[in-house]
Design brief:
Elements (H helix, E strand, L loop, with lengths): L16 E6 L3 H9 L9 H11 L8 H6 L3 E6 L3 H10 L9 H13 L3 E4 L7 H5 L7 E5 L15 E4 L2 H9 L5 E3 L7 H5 L7 E8 L5 H17 L3 E6 L7 H6 L6 H9 L1 E6 L12 H8 L4 E4 L15 E3 L2 H12 L2 H18 L2 H20 L4 H13 L3 H9 L11 H11 L3 H14 L4 H14 L6
Parallel strand pairs: 1-2, 1-3, 3-4, 4-5, 5-6, 7-8, 7-9, 9-10, 10-11
Length: about 475
């Protein structure tokens, strides 16, 4: 199914408008406008179109496909001063130079009045920002697939999506009402605009060198040293974030590439190397899986247990489980050009078919509709509690919590409401909240032995030393 296919069933959903908010790397924004000085004073729409065409973070930009599906949709880059200031000027917004990011963003959300707010930076714009909006959207969704700072508050987020289970689990512990699996998606134009790029390097890696990628850094250094020892070329396009690089890595590094330049760097490799962030803990699904295959390059990625959720090894890509195996496979595939290029083309066709932006946009609409419909259910509180208990019996803690959080008719006490809430918080290890809920349940309904037993357990957990 192509990205431009209109799904008429989506038009019948409860979600009609989606506002996507991003922040981009400051170094990318600086480079982007330095290469296009004429763009700084261009209309807001023109700047956003150029940003989209350059492809930075484009695998998360669903707005164009949502429009194709019949929804109202837009996207902004909250920390991109040229585009944001231009929007403010076009809409007669007076700018506070101290608080311009949040001020303009709030004005944009108010002007668009979306059903759904989808944030790609729920760290800088967490619940504190959501509560500052003049009107809360019907559904608030965030994406995260990296470290989550301890100070973050996601209590006002209806859903956090991620391809990493560790992030989805932590999201529930810090207040998000639900979490769900989601993955990056591929626009077809990335392959089209890199077709003329030549294979310049035997092996390529493009990305960051950070403390969060300690394991990957070891792999990159081993390949850099092997390239000098064995004579194959290693094209490294690293952003080192001011860190000192090992000698071999430094000699191979040609500097960071962003947007289309990054995609062209990936296309320039006969083999593209990949390994996950340390946080992933054995799960595949990072952007480089999709970026590499989208441009039609051969991917050699570290083996993860769930890799077949995305690709079939030895058909679309290949994997390695150790540095010696990686070096052995580099030698093998550099000698087998036809096999390597055949697999690269197969992976490109696969991602275009199975991981298109159109598919991602439809999934985002499904998430949004589920949240909005759940909130709109006009049922008695006791019926909702029964449904929540049913979700708990099925093991769906986040769904049960979402149901009880939507109960607003509290004209009279609802038996087991706080008990269910206490169960949910207990299973999410949010013991303080669990204790408060259970104490409230027992204050209203003292004859509830299961609630009293659970409260005793929760208090015992609260008394344990915190695990480090």
């Amino acid at each position: 199914m192509s990205d431009s296919t209109v799904n008429l069933t989506a038009l019948q959903g409860t979600c009609t408008s989606v506002f996507q908010m991003f922040t981009f790397y400051e170094s990318y924004i600086e480079t982007f406008y330095k290469e296009r000085p004429w763009l700084i004073n261009a209309p807001f729409a023109t700047q956003m179109e150029e940003l989209y065409r350059d492809g930075f973070c484009v695998m998360h930009v669903h707005a164009p496909q949502l429009i194709n599906l019949g929804a109202r949709a837009t996207w902004v880059v909250a920390n991109c001063a040229p585009s944001q200031v231009r929007w403010a000027l076009e809409n007669n917004i007076l700018i506070d130079p101290v608080d311009w990011k949040e001020q303009i963003l709030r004005a944009q959300i108010a002007a668009f009045n979306p059903d759904v707010l989808y944030s790609l930076n729920p760290i800088d714009f967490d619940s504190k920002f959501i509560r500052s909006l003049t009107k809360r959207p019907k559904a608030v969704i965030g994406w995260r697939a990296a470290d989550i700072p301890a100070h973050v508050d996601w209590g006002d987020f209806d859903l956090i999506v991620s391809h990493l289970s560790v992030c989805r689990e932590q999201a529930l512990r810090i207040g998000a009402k639900s979490s769900a699996y989601f993955h990056p998606c591929v626009p077809t134009f990335l392959g089209d605009i890199t077709t003329s790029t030549l294979r310049e390097f035997d092996v390529v890696f493009a990305g960051q060198w950070t403390p969060q990628h300690h394991h990957r850094n070891l792999i990159i250094n081993a390949v850099a040293e092997a390239s000098e020892r064995e004579g194959f070329s290693f094209g490294l396009f690293l952003s080192s974030n001011g860190q000192e690089l090992p000698p071999a890595v430094s000699r191979c590094n040609r500097g960071a590439r962003w947007g289309l330049q990054m995609y062209r760097a990936l296309k320039s490799g006969r083999i593209v190397l990949n390994a996950e962030i340390d946080l992933a803990k054995g799960e595949a699904g990072n952007l480089r899986l999709f970026e590499t295959t989208a441009v039609g390059s051969f991917l050699l990625t570290e083996y993860q247990l769930n890799i077949e959720r995305y690709f079939t090894p030895n058909k679309h890509i290949d994997t390695y489980s150790s540095i010696p195996e990686l070096l052995e496979k580099i030698r093998f595939y550099l000698k087998h050009d036809e096999l390597r290029e055949q697999m690269a083309l197969a992976s490109q066709a696969h991602v275009r078919s199975e991981f298109s932006l159109g598919i991602g946009a439809r999934k985002l609409l499904e998430f949004s509709d589920t949240i909005i419909k759940t909130k709109a259910v006009t049922q008695t509180p006791s019926t909702a509690v029964d449904q929540a208990l049913g979700q708990l019996r099925a093991g769906n803690v986040s769904a049960a919590l979402l149901i009880v959080e939507q109960i607003t008719d509290l004209s009279r006490p609802v038996k087991d409401l706080e008990f269910v809430r206490g169960i949910c918080f207990g299973q999410l290890a949010r013991f303080d909240e669990a204790a408060r809920a259970l104490e409230q349940e027992l204050a209203l309904f003292p004859d509830n032995p299961p609630a009293r037993d659970l409260l005793d357990y929760v208090k015992s957990e609260l008394g344990r030393p915190q695990r480090t």
